[in-house]
Amino acid sequence: MGYARLTQKVLVETKSTEKDIDKCLKWREGRVRNDGTVDESVQKVYAECVTLSQSSETSSCRDILSKALNVREYSGRVRGMGLGVTQTTLNKGQKRSEKNPSNRELMAIIQNISSEVEELKKERGKDIARSQQDMHIVSDKDSSNVDVLKNIPEGISPCSPYLLSPTYRIVAKGMVHNILGDKLHHKPLPVGYLKVSIDIAFEKDAELPIPDDDADIRLVGDAIGTYVAWQRNLISLNLEVK
Question: Which residues belong to any copy of the DUF8039 domain (predicted)?
Fold first, then answer.
C-alpha cells in the first residue's frame, strides 16, 4: 500500500488530523502483511519506538526510528515516511500551522485599525460640517449691518475683521484699505492680505494673523489706532441697511 493511501487509512482509523498521526505507527502499518499480521521484528521495532518516545526527550520520529532500528540516519532523509519525504517537507505543514494564529491576529489588528480610521473620518466630517455651519452664522447683533462680500471694493471701507479659530467670529472693527500697491509699514503686503486699521477691539487678547514683532504688536488690543495685515477672505464690510 502506498504511503498516501496508508495515511488516509490511519486517518480514518485514528480519527485524527494528518499532522497528529503517530509516524512510528504509520511506519508499522506500512509493514503489515496481506493477512493482517505483523512480522515479529517489525513489532519489536515498533515497541522499541513506543518505549523511546515515552522515556526519551527525542521528539522526532526520524530519531526514534533510527535508534530503534539501530541504523545510521542520513541527512535530509526521514525513515519510514516514503520515497522523497524529507524533514523539510514533513515539518512544512506544521510550521505553516504555527504561523496561522499570528496571521489571524494580524488580520484582527488590521480590521480594528480600519474601523478606527472610519470612525475618525466620520468625526472629521462632522467637525468640517460644524465649522462650515459656524462660518455662515452671523450673530443677531451684527446681522443688520454686516455683509460678507467675496470682493472688496477699491478704496477705504468700514469693515469687521474675523478670525477662524477657535470659532468664526468678529474680533474688531475698523477700516480696510484696498489700495493697489499699498504697503504696510513700508513693506509689501503678503499675497491675499489687505491693510486694516483697528478702531475697536472686541477681543483684545485675540492673536493677530500676522504679528508686528518690530512694534511688539501681537494682539488685537495692541493694534488699536494702527495698521495690521489681515486676510482678505476674513474681512467683512459694514454696510448700512437702507
Answer: 151-237
- Are 208 and 191 spatial neighbours (Cβ–Cβ below 8 Å)? no
Centre a 10 Å sphere on the Cβ of residue 196 and count the other Cβ atoms it contains. Answer: 28
**Would you mind telling me the total number of residues written for the chain in this entry?**
242
How many angstroms separate the CA atoms of 122 and 128, rounded? 10
Residue 10: closest CA among 232, 2, 90, 114: 2
| pLDDT tens per residue across span 76-93 | 555 555 555 555 555 555
Residue recorded with cell 462632522: 126
- Please report, as a single letter, which amino acid is at residue 190: P
**Residues facing 158 on adjacent strands:** 175
- Among residues 193, 200, 201, the alpha carbon closest in space to that of 177 is found at 193
Q: Give the count of beta carbons closer than 10 Å to the beta carbon of residue 152.
A: 17
C-alpha cell at 92: 512544512
DSSP string, 89-101: HHHHHHHHHHHHH
Q: Which residues pair with 95 in a beta bridge?
A: none
Q: Which phi and psi angles does 157 have, rounded to 5°?
A: -140, 150
CA atoms within 13 A on the CB side of 42: 14
pTM of the model: 0.39
CA count, 13 A, side-chain hemisphere, 97 = 9
